[in-house]
Amino acid sequence: MSDLQAILDRIAAEMAAAPDRGKVADYIPELASIDPGQFGIAVCLADGTHCTAGDAEVRFSIQSVSKVFTLAMALGRLGDQLWARVGREPSGLAFNSILQLEHERGIPRNPFINAGAIVVTDALLSGHAPREMLGDYLRFLRHAADDDDIHINESVARSETETGHRNFALAHELCAHGNLQHPPDHVLGAYFHQCAAEMTCRQLAFAGRFLVNAPELPSLLSLARVRRINALMMTCGHYDGSGEFAFRVGLPGKSGVGGGILVIVPSRAAVAVWSPGLNAQGNSQLGTLAVERLARAQGWSVFG
Ligand code: DON
Fold first, then answer.
1. What is the DSSP secondary structure assignment for residue 48, as one 8-state letter?
2. Is residue 2's pLDDT more than 90?
3. Which of the residues 64, 97, 275, 284 is marked catalytic?
4. Residue 1's pLDDT is what?
5. pTM
6. How far is ligand 1, taken at its centre, from the CA of residue 256, in Å?
7. What is the pLDDT of residues 84-143, one digit of tens each?
8. Catalytic one of 43, 156, 257, 271
9. Which CATH class is domain 2-63+198-297?
10. Helix 184-195 vs helix 114-124: angle between axes, to the nearest 10 degrees?
11. Nearest CA-CA partner of 31 in 151, 159, 117
């Protein structure tokens, strides 16, 4: 057994015994009944090999991790024009906060808070019906992961549509400031569906390989864009928990309220971890602890 496999097995055993697992997101009713006892982890290395442990083959709702993929698609399609509509600063506020958006006249702080991700989805809808945009999105995920068995869970998307009042408020505020080019219900229909994509840890780690920058791994964007997406993951990927994640883990990461986190170790690896219980900032409690332990065990950090 490789050293990495032994480390993952040890971390999975530690997480199985962890007493404080956080709280499962319940504002999307379909996610409220997920068993918080689950934990999975997968690592794809720069040489193309991979290792997994725990529930790495269980599908989960990727939720806000989807924002990395839609940002990559939007940058590939529109290039730097996107930055006229969305900023690149950490928000220091919750992922769904409305406060800053009004104060800053409809320009979201970054593409990972909900308001920013809604603008990115709106940009991807340009010239496309929502169904076509979602088809492109699924093709992107499947191509990046080299796996066609990736789908959107319609019940999760519907469940969020019925309860997504804050996101509707954000979309209407964006509209009021002229920063939405399509009707709010079209944009949010697409956004809720992108969030409702389901992947396993193994699929998510594979899908993240294009952000690693290693000769053996797929290259879907220019190196300059890969570096910038990593910079945004580092500074904004965990919302008002981004500083804490950088302090503890020292690597770029993007979380979702389904309990998944995609972490990139530049030039070395893509890591996906999943445990549904969340901390106060809406990021996976055990997922964060697990990647903190993995990074320490492997000596992985962007800070040397
Ligand atoms: O917009 C929402 O509220 C969800 N679909 C996604 C939020 C999310 O995953 C935040 N991440 N931790």
1. S
2. no
3. 64
4. 66
5. 0.98
6. 6
7. 999 999 999 999 999 999 999 999 999 999 999 999 999 999 999 999 999 999 999 999
8. 257
9. alpha beta
10. 110
11. 159
